[in-house]
Design goal:
This protein has 476 residues and is an alpha+beta fold. 56% of the residues lie in helices and 14% in strands.
């Protein structure tokens, strides 16, 4: 679509301007009206202007009229004392939703393409990526990743979105780093714990091991051993005990003999010296043997009682005396080993919990890796399906490349080519670009820009500031 007619009246600093569809360069000094022509065309297409005053000073109405070779007619009248007038017709019929219709027939950079060369790299990359036509929405993102990553700005091209999703600064990458770090730490803990636990450690066995039963068995054996030892000592010392009992008896009998002998002697002496006491003494003497026998019987009875008591006590140990003393060394060693093994249980359980946590974290890390890899693989798939409007355009790590080079590495001529390609993104749209301020370019660059526009079949209107007092229009 090409312009066939431009008519401007009382807009900005222009009293009246009219042109056909030729490409032209407007030159003259500041205030000659060069930029006003371009601003008026921009106003016609966008219904916007950065200028505070649009209608020419002293007038109440300004108008811009544009016609194209496919039957489109745009007529805008800006008024100071009543509502503005707007008419957008196609083949003589008013267009529905005219502003939306107009927005679809040109790109913003067509109205100022040289600005692209002055933009920073990030903006240039964003504009080029936006030229790649691939339909997508939030449902597509959710289908790919099972969620909508919240740290990504979705007002970008899909390739930049995917780059941000898998970026090292992205939440997937950062979270995976944290998880992998946690996995490494937990595995180190597991190795440290494993070093303290014997090989082939059976946690269930030692968890169920009854050490108390072992110690009760040890105590039972120990007490039985004490009884055996005591029985052996008692049996071995019986003869000694018997001799002691006999000695006690003999001593007792000797004492009795001495006592009664002494008493008999005394009595006889008393009889000899005391006749008057003979009767009583004889009477006593007659019962003396009986008393003696009673005491002897008592002594014998005490002896027999002591022997019987000792033999009764000794009989309790006779069954043990023949037994051998058992060793508790094996059971003690077993109990001590069981205690040692049970001492590892808490650390073993902690190691099991850590291993379970590591498995869970590894699964989370893999899920994040899958998403990151998905975001890295998708651009290749998208570029195979998408419409690529610029020859030689590829994308690597979210960065657009022209024939393998980033924009910053392009020559000035290549940047001019790219600048024009970027401006004309709608092949069925309006084929015109507005270039304000070409004096900022070198003569060679300016001429090259004009040549490339003609080569691509584009109309263009350029402005160049010169020292000429009046507006000069040169058809190119």
């Amino acid at each position: 679509m090409r312009l066939t007619k431009i008519k401007i009246k009382n807009l900005f600093g222009i009293k009246e301007y009219e042109a056909n569809g030729q490409s032209v360069e407007l030159s003259g000094r500041n205030g000659a009206g060069k930029t006003s022509v371009i601003d008026a065309i921009r106003l016609a297409l966008t219904n916007r202007s950065d200028r505070e005053y649009i209608v020419r000073d002293g007038e109440t109405e300004g108008e811009i009229l544009i016609e194209t070779d496919n039957g489109l007619r745009i007529d805008r009248k800006i008024r100071t004392n009543q509502a503005d007038y707007k008419s957008v017709k196609k083949d003589g019929h008013e267009v529905g939703s005219p502003e939306t219709f107009l927005k679809d027939i040109f790109t913003p950079l067509q109205l100022s393409p040289v600005e692209f060369m002055a933009m920073d790299r990030k903006k240039q990359n964003a504009i080029i990526l936006d030229m790649i036509d691939y339909p997508w929405d939030m449902n597509k993102i959710r289908e790919w990743f099972g969620e909508i990553p919240g740290w990504v700005s979705y007002d970008q091209n899909i390739l930049q979105v995917l780059h941000d999703i898998q970026s090292e600064n992205g939440e997937y990458f950062q979270t995976r780093q944290d998880i992998n770090r946690d996995i490494r730490n937990k595995r180190a803990f597991i190795e440290d714990i494993a070093d303290t636990i014997p090989a082939g450690y059976d946690a269930e066995k030692w968890d169920n091991e009854n050490v108390g039963e072992l110690y009760r068995e040890i105590e039972k054996i120990r007490k039985e051993n004490e009884t055996i030892e005591k029985a052996k000592r008692m049996l071995e010392s019986r003869s000694n005990k018997m001799r002691a009992f006999e000695a006690d008896r003999e001593i007792e009998l000797s004492a009795i003999e001495k006592e009664f002998t002494r008493r008999e002697t005394n009595l006889k002496e008393q009889i000899a010296s005391l006749e008057e006491q003979i009767r009583s003494c004889k009477k006593e003497l007659s019962g003396l043997n009986e008393k003696k026998q009673d005491k002897i019987s008592l002594a014998e009875q005490t002896y027999k009682t002591n022997v019987a008591k000792y033999d009764a006590e000794l009989s309790q140990y006779e069954e043990y005396a023949s037994k051998e003393v058992k060793s508790t060394a094996e059971l003690t060693e077993k109990a001590e080993y069981a205690e040692e093994m049970k001492g590892h249980l808490n650390e073993y359980r902690r190691m099991e919990n850590l291993q379970s946590e590591v498995e869970k974290l590894a699964a989370e890390s893999k899920a994040l890796t899958d998403k990151i890899e998905k975001a890295r693989e998708l651009p290749g798939e998208i570029l195979q399906e998408a419409t690529i409007p610029i020859d030689g355009l590829t994308v690597k790590d979210g960065i657009p490349l022209i024939h393998g080079l980033p924009i910053s590495n392009l020559s000035d001529g290549e940047k001019l080519d790219l600048c024009i390609d970027v401006a004309i993104q709608k092949p069925n749209g309006l084929q015109i670009i507005l270039i304000d301020g070409v004096e900022k370019l070198s003569s060679d660059m300016r001429n090259e820009l004009y040549r490339k526009c003609k080569e691509k079949g584009l109309q263009f209107i350029a402005t160049r500031t010169t020292d000429e007092p009046e507006l000069t229009v040169v058809e190119l």
